[in-house]
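Researcher: We're teaching a course module on how sequence relates to structure. For the next exercise, students receive a sequence and then see the predicted structure as tokens, so they can try to spot secondary structure elements on their own. Here is the exercise chain.
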Amino acid sequence: MQEKETKKILFLYTELAGYFLSCIKKLHEKYSVEIHIVRYPVNKEAPFDFKFSDSITVYDENNFDAEQLLALTKKINPDIIYSSGWGDKKYLKVCKYFKGGIPTIVGFDNHWKGTVKQLVASVFSKFFVRNYFSHCWIPGEPQMEFAHKLGFTNDTILTGFYSANTDLFLSYYEMNKEYKLARVEKRFIYVGRYYDFKGIQSLWDAFIAMQEEQANDWELWCLGIGDITPISHPKIKHIGFVQPEQMSEYIKNTDVFVLPSLVEPWGVVVHEFAAAGFPLLCSNKVGAASLFVKEGENGFIFEAGNVSDLKSLLKKIVNLSKQELIKMGEESNKMAQKLTVEKWTDTLMKLLDRK
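Model: And here is the predicted structure for the students to work with:
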């Protein structure tokens, strides 16, 4: 009997991230597929040191013009193509050529806001977005309205694109449970870039105000880099950028995760810390909170940029017992399993099998 031909998948990517590569790794482990990735250069504000398996072929986008990239794709002859957004003309040229013959998927995390740009995109989508893509793959519910406005129907919309490396972060939870029960120190943790839109200044202000109103032994650890000068405070510690494989130590020694973003279409880091068993404090602009935060059970939502609102929740956390915080973390761990790297791979392969 003739062996089934190996399926080929091409990802036309912009900025690679470790969580995406964990999905790719699981995809290769679970299914017999040939994987090709075209990528942009590494972002200097997120200088991840990526390691690629020999089974994955990686190309630098800036080494190809539009015709060369199309020629490469024809040579690969993929069974399915995924493109990060619709902003790269070279990627669009490839997808337009193959649309109709194979599934061509666009990924985006934009929320529908009814802006002029979005209204124009929705009106002309059948001549633009739908001219290149047969399907879209979005993170979750906050992106659903925009997907429909662009003309994608429920049977052409995939969800759950942004999955954390759940194998890793769920293992952190199991590994650290006993240690955290015994550890005395108490710490909030922020992981993200130091930019205005991340709301980090409001987090610092809220934490300092909380300390002034109610002196306590909690600290705030911040991991990241950016253009905002780190604030100086005896209970705020600035760690800098941390590679994913070095995160274990910081997860082990902190207790409650905070993401105060003013703009955050999704935020995979919320999924990561949910899987690791953290109570979660997220602003109402964090898309991932829609899936991973249940108000009062495993975390709280506050108004983005509202220092007073955030300060009140920090105080609320400080006044909870260790047992209450542990229980919230257990709930986060359960909620994180609504989306896993395994479910990510199954979503893609189900579409491939329908081809």
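Model: If you want an answer key for the exercise: The chain has a mean pLDDT of 93. The longest strand covers residues 33-39.
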